[in-house]
Amino acid sequence: MNDSSDKEGATPPQHSDTRLVTAGRDPASYYGFVNPPVYHASTVLYPSAEDFLAHRARYQYGRRGTPTTEALEGALAELEGPQCAGVSLLPSGLAAISAALLSVVKSGDHVLITDSAYGPTRNFCEQILKRLGVETSFYDPLIGAGIAGQFRANTRAVYLESPGSLSFEMQDVAAIANVAHDKSALVLMDNTWATPLYFRPLDHGVDLAIQAGTKYIGGHSDVMLGTVSANAATVTGLKTTVRLTGLCEGPDDVYLGLRGLRTLSVRLDRHFKSGIAVARWLEQRPEVLRLLHPALPSHPGHAIWKRDFTGASGLFSMVLKPVPQKAYYAFLDTLKLFGIGASWGGYESLAIPFDCTPARTATRWAPGGPTVRFHIGLEAIEDLIADLERGFAALAAAARG
Ligand SMILES: *Cc1c(COP(=O)(O)O)cnc(C)c1O
């Protein structure tokens, strides 16, 4: 539903910035109000016993969808592009990952998961999928077309996350998808980092594109939301799995997702520019070994990023030159504008310590020094840099003893 299509002679808007404003809107249905109402709903009343028994209703039950959920699903489907055949909303990003995986596997199958995947994705495969008789093996995110060598007769799906959200390896999505499709396997991708504004997975051969809407779609650190976008090959399986498992998202969080979506482009543009500026500044610091930011020319995945992505979000990592642990912690604990906490994609900056070692089986994590992941928020760059300068001063003081 697109309100501008009602106006005679209007051409459908093409640019994603315009679609962010128009998608999933239908003011004519809501007395002209710009935004759809938040339907808090379980019961839907039917006009007759016969209608009830025949499920004859536009909306049947709260769990099965409301005008609010349809507005967000419709808007996301438009952003994902022409290959998108349907979107499901889930109560968290992790629920979106588990629902997407469950929608494609059966007992006896094998799945290939990138070694750089978000940790809880790995846990879901190793614990829940394993219990259901689905085997998981992990592959090097940089494998590209070499993924062919990892396939078994029962390999059903390949799962990507690009870039990895701590370690930032860029994957060759099209090369991996080509091999997978040759071998009749499906391709899933966690696209939380780029959002469909900067990378549209379904255009590059991905069958199921997943997002933690908790991050940039929500954008304000106040919502838990997951989304899965399916192409024609996977949409029925996805919708059936979501329906049969009873997974659904609360109406207020759906509304916050829809509200966040309207400003996604301006926010991401700022995260992109500020993120690059801060990363460039950090890259020049004597305390820093290297930056893990795909939009920097120094990044090993830069060519893939440039080929496939139209922007970068505000999330990247930094490797410090080796320092005593107390100096590493002093840097983080001194920062005032950078909070220490999980998640990202909100308006505020974050900086966390991390170590990928325990979550690697196919590759070895050896960055060469202590690592920090930054999320660059919407604060002024000069204030963020001043804060980081204080952090480096504290690091130096602690290192001296
Ligand atoms: C946060 C995150 C998730 C999980 O999202 P939740 O909404 O916290 O469950 C999944 N993938 C990536 C890359 C994430 O950063």
Task: Give a verbal description of the structure.
The chain has three domains: 12-92 and 207-262, 3-Layer(aba) Sandwich (Aspartate Aminotransferase, domain 2); 105-199, Aspartate Aminotransferase, domain 2 (3-Layer(aba) Sandwich), CATH 3.40.640.10; 264-400, Aspartate Aminotransferase, domain 1, CATH 3.90.1150.10. Helices cover 36% and strands 14% of the residues. It is built from 13 helices and eleven strands. It has helices at 16-22, 49-53, 67-80, 93-102, 119-131, 173-182, 195-198, 235-245, 251-262, 264-283, 302-308, 325-334, 381-400, and strands at 86-90, 110-114, 135-139, 155-161, 186-190, 208-212, 226-230, 288-292, 315-320, 350-354, 371-375. The strands form two sheets. Strands 1-7-6-5-4-2-3 form a seven-stranded mixed beta sheet, sandwiched between helices. Strand 2 (110-114), helix 5 (119-131) and strand 3 form a beta-alpha-beta unit. Helix 3 packs parallel to helix 9 (251-262) and helix 12 packs antiparallel against helix 13. Residues 1-6 have low confidence and may be disordered. The site of pyridoxal-5'-phosphate has 14 residues, from helix 4.
